[in-house]
Amino acid sequence: MIFSAPIMAIIIVAVIVIGFLIGAVSIGGVIIVPLLVLLTDIEIHVAVASVIFTAIFTGTLGAYMFARMGAVDWPSCLWLSIGAMAGAYLGSSVLIQLPSQVVEALVGVMVLGTGINAVLSGSEPKGARPRLSPVVTSITGFIAAFGSAVSGAGGPLLLVPMLMWMRVPVITAIALGQVFQVPVGLFATLRNWQSDIIDFQLGFLIAACLLIGVYFGARFSGTINASAVKRILAVVLIGVGVLLFARLLF
Q1: What does the pLDDT look like over 177-194, one tens digit per residue?
Q2: Number of domains within the chain
Q3: Distance between CA 104 and CA 171 in Å, rounded?
Q4: What mean pLDDT do residues 170-175 have?
Q5: Could you tell me the pTM of the whole model?
Q6: Are 14 and 236 in contact (CB under 8 A)?
Q7: Domain residues for 62?
Q8: Cα dihedral angle (43, 49, 52, 56), rounded to 10 degrees?
């Protein structure tokens, strides 16, 4: 990890801000990989591997915070984790086989999808049910973990919309998404370490900045206009996604 001082400063400040947004409105982590790709000459496989490593730390913090609230459905976490372990390991195995342009395109799709989802997302799903069957939960965990490991997107980015689509209550889905990050981060990192594509120095730096931001974002989440922030962030995400695709095309 060798960046110039100005680039390093921009990355540190930007990641702390992203962490704040995650803590305040639960959106933002998906922008870290594009940030690294657009600001530096880091290879995208390394960027994805280094960012997914940080899920171990942000997931631990998020799990602790939601566990204190009594919002974590631990039996569902068990089945999600079983699927997540296999999905994350296999996804990271596929990642190393993909050309850089394909990985960058996948990241662009994730960023655009997150921005569009932030615009369209509604409130509590109607007829919400508290728990899915173990088999459905494990398969859901596998799919979400596989996509997260290939793209570097945070586990909650894929898992939470899937759970809400299956009518899991919002607070339960978000809490599961936080715990879900830990097995995804661990097993994706194990495979990426075996493939020698992870920059641990960069990963620890991003993790530290994210934790600082998440802590303050969570503390101030009740004092900001979350709807307005989400709308602004949605525009930023869509813009970054378009920029990534323009970079690929031109």
Answers
A1: 889 999 999 999 999 999
A2: 1
A3: 31
A4: 82
A5: 0.86
A6: no
A7: 5-249
A8: -140
